[in-house]
Specification:
This protein has 274 residues and is an alpha/beta fold. The protein has a single domain, classed as Rossmann fold. It starts with 5 loop residues before the first strand and ends in a 26-residue tail after the last helix. It has eight helices and seven strands. A seven-stranded parallel beta sheet has the order 3-2-1-4-5-6-7, sandwiched between helices. The protein is globular. The structure holds 1,4-dihydronicotinamide adenine dinucleotide and D-galactaro-1,5-lactone. 1,4-dihydronicotinamide adenine dinucleotide binds next to α1, α3 and β5.
Length: 274
């Protein structure tokens, strides 16, 4: 597949969308921005809800690819997750199919597999201890469940319609890691842009699932499928380790928040059921 030029960025007003608006143009992409929240200083941005099928269809028309970040990014009521993340992602895929878009990069999450136990013992972990990308879905929340749906929707649209997707199970993509757990799953914004670029340009991805993180010394999961796309992470959270460990201590095997990939998402639903 030749390098995509015009890319629809959904969720462009959000934290990750804002970071990618800053970083992706340097790779040669022309971004078409979409979000339900207006974006200051971006008069051409499309302000619409994923529930608005006509607006979504118009937004995907003529783009080479989509980076789909829009949606609820934390746990919420099932009704809210259903509307924004499940129906919203369906609306996007259906519009992309109708308009002949070739590829979507889907922002999945570690919380699709949040109940997978982290590697035991102390980092650095040997390759055989790392969580494989083939691990079965073990969502830790309705939010994580919506990411499982998104990944399976991507598989359906590849098998049935030939619409390609790279599902990126993002760890924690923020300017800096802010917890000891994040030292293992952090993806620097720069590596995020590198990974999205690889996902947009690699050939014949079908539906590929990758882990989204930097090359952290304390890595919990396997980056092989991401590297196979051509992703070469440049960053390592270890530069933040001394400060975070001094503040919070090392991972505690007796702390349930430290037992699973999904961290506190596995132990702290607001109020169940909700
Ligand atoms: P965010 O909450 O900052 O941004 C999400 C954006 O989606 C917001 O601007 C919001 O207005 C928009 N949005 C929500 N519902 C919408 C709807 N119905 N129609 C149109 N726009 C809608 O989240 P963030 O951190 O930027 O994450 C972006 C994506 O990456 C999300 O899908 C999130 O689940 C995923 N992700 C992010 C991670 C991270 O570390 N930032 C980790 C794992 C996954
Ligand atoms: C996510 O999926 C969330 O969208 C993000 O806000 C972080 O909580 C991240 O996972 C994480 O696990 O750190």
């Amino acid at each position: 597949m030749p390098a995509a030029r015009t890319v629809l960025l959904t969720g462009a007003a959000g934290g990750l969308g804002t970071l990618m608006r800053g970083l992706l143009p340097a790779y040669g992409y022309e971004l078409r921005l979409f979000d339900v929240t207006p974006i200051e200083g971006e008069p051409d941005a499309i302000t619409a809800d994923l529930a608005d099928k006509a607006a979504v269809r118009e937004a995907v028309r003529g783009v080479d690819a989509v980076i789909h970040l829009a949606g609820i990014s934390l746990e919420a009521s099932f009704d809210k997750i259903l509307r924004a993340n499940i129906e919203g992602t369906y609306n996007l895929y259906e519009a992309a199919r109708e308009e002949g878009v070739k590829r979507i990069v889907f922002a999945s999450s570690n919380h699709a597999v949040g109940f997978v136990p982290r590697p035991e013992g102390d980092a650095p972990f040997p390759p055989e201890a790392l969580i494989p990308v083939e691990t079965r879905h073990r969502p830790d929340t309705f939010y994580g469940l919506s990411k499982c749906f998104g990944e399976d929707l991507a598989q359906l649209y590849w098998d049935r319609h030939g619409l390609e997707t790279v599902s990126v199970r993002i760890g924690s993509c923020f300017m800096e890691p802010t917890s000891v757990r994040m030292l293992s799953v952090w993806m620097s914004p720069g590596d995020g842009a590198r990974l999205f670029h690889a996902a947009l340009t690699a050939g014949n991805v079908g539906h590929t699932i990758v882990h989204g993180s930097s090359a952290n010394t304390r890595l919990w999961w396997d980056l092989t499928s991401a590297r196979a796309l051509g992703y070469e992470p440049q960053d390592d959270s270890e530069q933040y380790a001394e400060k975070l460990v001094a503040e919070y201590g090392e991972l505690d095997p007796d702390n349930p928040d430290h037992a699973h990939l999904g961290g506190h998402f596995t132990t702290d639903p607001p109020q169940w059921p909700y």
